Automatic annotation (TrEMBL):
Residues the record marks as active site: C116
Species of the source: Balaenoptera acutorostrata
Keyword vocabulary terms for this entry: Flavoprotein, FMN, Nucleotide-binding, Oxidoreductase, tRNA processing
Full protein name: tRNA-dihydrouridine synthase
Keyword Oxidoreductase included in the entry's annotation: yes
Top-level lineage group: Eukaryota
Length: 321
């Protein structure tokens, strides 16, 4: 785990408690946890474009507490990286609470992943299988609450829904009774991938809760975010793939502006982002603004210098100025 030494101004956002934000009555715009992608550099970028709250990628808690190397690799932050939620995959209350204590000084809270549908996660007892084990979720929340002394440190969960929505409502009520700060609901079942999101289900869950609820699933523009917020009555919206394609989505841009690409290059180079991650983000950002032929050329580039030359030649951006 590293606290990056990049010089930043004092982060005024540290004063913005996510729990207070979610009780404000205003739309809270959230960057989802995305494996490989929602790391420090990308979080820094989306914060420049009206993102209110960011999550780290999902981190396996057992690996995190066992290995210094894993901590340094998986969790990097700096003074401006706030408010911040660290998401963990866990199936053991003690391990999760140990991980939470490690990150407590550097983040506003932790989130328990109860929604990942990937086979490896389910096989390990992580992710979406936890929606069928509310007792374990309760134990993990309680253990974190008991072990972390800061009363403002949030403990949230991110879930998918059941085919029988009454089971989801029951899970959420039990989580609320245990002391969960808020719940993020991805409006699909574990088996669903690209089917339409069940926003009505999210609305029913929200109406059953007293704590904040964040809606998640298939939001690709600020207008869609606002529509989902109104339809579901939730307290915030969380975006994943839509932000990858357009990190300026929450600022109202319909496609990635060139200024955002410029900002990404500056941030990524300053923070030492590995080339593959640097390039992959640009491929996502430029998807809508490049032709098929341009994509073939750009996607085949293999060095930072080649990428910078390409951007200079095609968009007239001078990275040396």
């Amino acid at each position: 785990m590293k606290s990056d030494c990049m010089q930043t101004t004092t982060c005024q956002e540290r004063k913005k408690d996510p729990i207070e934000m979610l009780h404000s009555g205003q739309l809270v715009k959230v960057c989802a946890p995305m494996v490989r992608y929602s790391k420090l550099a990308f979080r820094t970028l989306v914060r420049k474009y009206s993102c209110d709250l960011c999550y780290t990628p999902m981190i396996v808690a057992a690996d995190f507490i066992r290995s210094i190397k894993a901590r340094d690799s998986e969790f990097t932050t700096n003074q401006g990286d706030c408010p911040l939620i660290v998401q963990f995959a866990a199936n053991d209350a003690r391990i999760l609470s140990d991980a939470a204590r490690i990150v407590c000084p550097y983040a506003n809270g932790i989130d328990i992943n109860c929604g990942c549908p990937q086979r490896w996660a389910l096989a390990e007892g992580y992710g979406a299988c936890l929606i069928n084990n509310p007792e374990l979720v309760r134990d993990m929340v309680k253990q974190v609450r008991n072990q972390v002394e800061n009363p403002r440190f949030s403990v949230s969960i991110k879930i998918r829904i059941h085919d029988d929505l009454t089971r989801t409502v029951d899970l959420c009520r039990k989580a609320e009774a245990t002391g969960v700060s808020w719940i993020t609901v991805h409006g699909r079942t574990v088996e669903e991938r690209h089917q339409p999101v069940h926003y009505e289900a999210i609305k029913i869950i929200k109406e059953s809760m007293s704590i904040p609820v964040i809606a998640n699933g298939d939001i690709r523009s600020l207008k869609e975010a606002e529509n989902v917020w109104h339809i579901t009555g939730t307290d915030g919206v969380m975006v994943a793939r839509g932000l990858l394609a357009n990190p300026a989505i929450f600022a109202g841009y319909e496609e990635t502006p060139l200024k955002c690409i410029w900002d990404w290059v500056d941030i990524a180079l300053e923070l030492g982002t590995p080339y593959m991650c640097f390039h992959q983000h640009l491929m996502y950002m430029m998807e809508k603004i490049t032709s098929r032929q341009e994509k073939r050329i750009f996607n085949a580039l293999s060095s930072t210098s080649a990428v910078l030359d390409y951007l200079t030649d095609h968009y007239g951006i001078d990275w040396t100025s």
